[in-house]
Amino acid sequence: AAERTLSIIKPDAVAKNVIGQIYARFEAAGLKIIAARMTHLSKNEAEQFYAVHKDRPFFKDLVDFMVSGPVMIQVLEGENAIAKNRELMGATDPKKAEKGTIRADFADSIDANAVHGSDAPEAATIEIACFFPALSIYSR
Ligand code: CMP
To answer: What residues does ATP bind to (predicted)?
Structure first.
């Protein structure tokens, strides 16, 4: 079914100037960018966005990294968008990511792992609402 997912190009990949290369992969896979904006997250925004991880040992490093520079945030729409985006991204840890995936090609570490993508439909709905009011999403 046509689905939406939230994608974030993280500070490491923005700094590497590979937004366009990552967008090209979304497009080639049939994922349409229906909302997008660049922003530099505040500590509060990053903590809220990753609230599900607040008790994990990596939470502080994750938040520190996510506020270290601007990010590019987008809503992707397409058939099985959530799974498709996760396939394009590869494993969370770039050392374990399959060849040809975004993380294998552009990521340096489990924190500086180039991209985020929603992992389930409920998460996608919540994450999209975090950054985009319905009126700024341009689906046909
Ligand atoms: P992301 O998909 O953005 O969701 C949470 C992030 O936490 C994850 O990508 C990683 O960048 C980061 N992280 C750091 N350590 C871990 C870990 N041990 N397990 C999962 N995520 C981790």
So the answer is: 10, 58, 86, 92, 103, 113
Residues with pLDDT less than 70, the chain: none
Per-residue confidence (pLDDT) for residue 111, from 0 to 100? 96
* 92 marked as binding residue: yes
Q: CA–CA separation, 25 vs 101, rounded Å?
A: 9
- Per-residue pLDDT tens over the stretch 95-108: 999 999 999 999 99
Does the Cβ of 110 fall within 6 Å of ligand 1? yes
- Whether the CB of 116 sits within 6 Å of ligand 1: yes
Helix (H) or strand (E) holding 6: strand 2-9
CA of 94 to the centre of ligand 1 (A): 11
pLDDT of res. 140: 75
Strand order in the sheet with 32-39: 32-39, 71-79, 2-9, 115-117
Asked if the ipTM is above 0.95, the reply is yes
* 117 CA: nearest ligand 1 atom: 2
Substitution candidate for ligand 1 out of 110, 116, 118, 130 with most atoms within 8 A of CB: 110
